[in-house]
Structure prediction request, 249 residues.
Amino acid sequence: MFEDYSIHYEKYGQGETKILILPGWGNTRKTFTYLINMLQDKYQIYIVDYPGFGKSPWPNKDLTIYDYANMIRDLMEKENIKNPIIIAHSFGGRIAILLSGYYKENIKKLILIDIAGIKRRKKLSIFLKEKLYKFLKKLNIFLPKKIKTKYQNILTKHFASTDYKELPNTMKKTFQNIIKEDLKYYLPYIEQETLIIWGKLDNDTPLKDGNLIKQKIKNAEIIIYPNSKHYSYLECPYLTYQIIIKFIH
Prediction:
């Protein structure tokens, strides 16, 4: 895998227990600076930049969430990261679910913070919006070639999500590949002791996702931050550190 992709990762600390941090989509190691600084005296910490973000270049090919999981598996093999504690936020949770529930990697414990991976039933308004987009997109074939691109750009501007519109064209298919995967089917196969941390006010990955994850994973507990949103670990950094330390021990 490392022959095809170049992933920037950093290592901190010298402790025997290893922690592997999987950030959210578009985030880099910098969003975990506080936790790394607090944990590195006692633990050996690894954190990555995903392709296209931070210091990791884009491989100029479409990826799936399984590709991302295999990149992390290769990193674990390369760095001899055995039986780590995984801390995952948002998109990183998709990878953590696959590593533990699908690939059955040797992982000690999971800490899942406002993670993604649950495909929710669409609201009627969103369903109708997608149907309208697909209909309008088909009309493109009847347009003169010189205005096809302009027409598609107008559709994207009005119908695409903010995350999608902000991506370079080379990464848009990968984004579509990722969000279409519903990973809740792997949750019952996760055997590790799991701590779930969730912001009650999270609008990106709503609390009902966290409660569903708790129900599906056999050995899981959830802690809810009543006044936090999607970046609960940044909004309550010291509390998150204290909870993680207690859970690790």
